[in-house]
Write a structure and sequence with these properties.
Blueprint lengths: L1 E2 L6 E6 L5 E5 L5 E6 L5 E6 L7 E8 L4 E8 L5 E9 L5 E7 L21 E8 L14 E5 L8 E6 L4 E2 L9 E2 L4 E5 L5 E7 L5 E5 L5 E6 L5 E6 L2 E7 L5 E5 L5 E6 L5 E5 L5 E6 L5 E7 L5 E9 L5 E5 L5 E4 L14 E4 L4 E6 L5 E6 L11 E7 L5 E5 L5 E6 L5 E6 L6 E3 L8
Antiparallel strand pairs: 1-2, 2-3, 3-4, 4-5, 5-6, 6-7, 7-8, 8-9, 9-10, 10-11, 11-12, 12-15, 13-14, 15-16, 16-17, 17-18, 18-19, 19-20, 20-21, 21-22, 22-23, 23-24, 24-25, 25-26, 26-27, 27-28, 28-29, 29-30, 30-31, 31-32, 32-33, 33-34, 34-35, 35-36
């Protein structure tokens, strides 16, 4: 038995002969199963094993580099709905990544490569690196030179260039000639827009960036390396810090200062604006915000919220400044064994119930649950997903469906809605993304 570190929820594990986790069972009995190859690398993960929402992720590895060569995702019926392949340099750097649409016959059998024409249904990104030191563009081995995106109708390449030699002139002064050999100098996007990293400090932190429009962003740092100021086109924002590194003040380019206060555990407890208005937070021992108060500069209270939490850190009630309960999830059944909120009521006592599938995805909301108003009682909205967690259907309280479809590259390909009075068919254009 193990407890989830975030909410201390129970998880039960079994282990294989290799000492690796074989199964993990959550508080609702949903099982995740794991398999490993001979190098003890994860070869298969089955989420919601045995459920109608079962999802199987299969990986093939380069055992020497301990990097994945292929990854596929299959639904409960075993149909592969997502596939990705990688190609690596012998040093482990990614040379190509190919996302392959399993539903596109033109992509069937394609093997990811750094060269050649890709068929329909394949998105390939490629990368080049410095493989040897030279005097033109490679001061060090291994630096990224180009990244080329998957578009085939144009060249979608971003180019990176580096300082070939070092200079230590006026280090720390934005725009000074301070940099090391191998520091990034320029980034040129596919449209030829150039971003220049004009200077660094002696510790390698960037002190000036010049964008494609010639606007400088200058940065200075404290002796401990924290950002002290950021100046964009002459407008400066400055920062001060507590001794332990938390931001104490932020002063914007107009000279307006916001101040932050902390407790002895270094947790944020107060925010004060330039006019003296404050937001005060009260925290429990676990760091949950149990109270929030907004005062003006005279100390007059303008807003108050009080929150309570259970021993698992789950929110149970919220009360406003008039002591009205505006959120109530204090019942023992308000959260399921996985920590999902399943039942709560609002300030009028109207209840809502929520349901989840074996992958902890919201699949149903029931508003005005068992309410007295029969016109709105138990109004239900249902949600359906595919194995990649993409929303595929929404059923509204009137029983009308809106369905969404996708290709194997996760592009939206269609949306079908049936209005109350008439039928309508609406399609999303994959090429335009709308």
């Amino acid at each position: 038995m193990h407890e989830d570190a975030r909410l201390r929820l129970p998880m039960t594990y079994t282990f294989g002969s290799n000492g690796r986790v074989a199964t993990a069972t959550d508080g609702l009995g949903n099982i995740t199963a794991f398999s490993y190859d001979n190098a003890n690398l994860l070869s298969q993960r089955v989420d919601a094993q045995g459920a109608s929402t079962q999802r199987t992720t299969t990986l093939l590895w380069n055992d020497a580099l301990r990097l994945p060569l292929t990854r596929s995702v299959a639904n409960a019926s075993g149909t592969v709905i997502s596939s990705t392949q990688w190609v690596y340099h012998t040093t482990g750097q990614t040379l190509a990544r190919c996302d392959i649409d399993p539903t596109n016959s033109a992509a069937s059998g394609y093997s990811c490569s750094t060269t050649g024409t890709v068929p329909a249904g394949v998105r390939r990104s490629t990368y080049t690196y410095c493989t040897a030191v030279d005097t033109v563009q490679c001061p060090l081995v291994g630096l990224l030179l180009t990244a080329t995106g998957p578009r085939t109708d144009l060249t979608q390449t971003t180019t990176y260039r580096y300082y070939m030699t070092g200079s230590a002139t006026n280090c720390g002064t934005p725009g000074a000639a301070c940099y090391q050999a191998g520091d990034l100098h320029t980034v040129t996007d596919a449209l030829g827009h150039v971003t220049t990293l004009a200077s660094y400090d002696a510790d390698g932190r960037i002190t000036r960036i010049t964008d494609a429009n010639g606007v400088n962003t200058d940065m200075t740092y404290t002796p401990r390396g924290w950002l002290a100021s950021r100046t964009v086109g002459g407008a400066t924002t400055s920062f001060t810090y507590m001794p332990y590194g938390a931001v104490q003040t932020v002063t914007d380019p107009d000279g307006v200062t916001t101040t932050y206060g902390y407790d002895t555990a270094h947790r944020l407890t107060k925010i004060t604006d330039a006019l003296g208005n404050t937001i005060q937070y009260t925290l429990d021992a676990a760091g949950n915000q149990t109270a929030e108060q907004v005062h003006d500069a005279t100390g007059t209270l303008h807003k108050s919220l009080t929150r309570s939490f259970n021993t698992l850190g789950q929110l149970t009630t919220v009360m406003d400044g008039l002591h009205h309960t505006i959120f109530d999830a204090s019942a023992g059944t308000s959260y399921d064994a996985n920590g999902n909120l399943v039942q709560n009521s609002d300030g009028l006592g109207i209840q809502r119930q929520q349901g989840y599938d074996a992958l902890n995805r919201l699949v149903q909301t029931i508003d005005n649950y068992n309410g007295s108003d029969t016109t709105t009682q138990n109004t239900t909205t249902a949600y359906h997903y595919d194995s990649l967690d993409r929303l595929t259907q929404v059923t509204d309280p009137s029983g009308l469906n809106t369905t969404y479809s996708y290709d194997g590259l996760s592009d939206a390909t269609g949306q079908v809605s049936i209005p109350r009075q008439s039928r309508g068919l609406y399609w999303v254009s994959p090429s335009k993304g709308r």
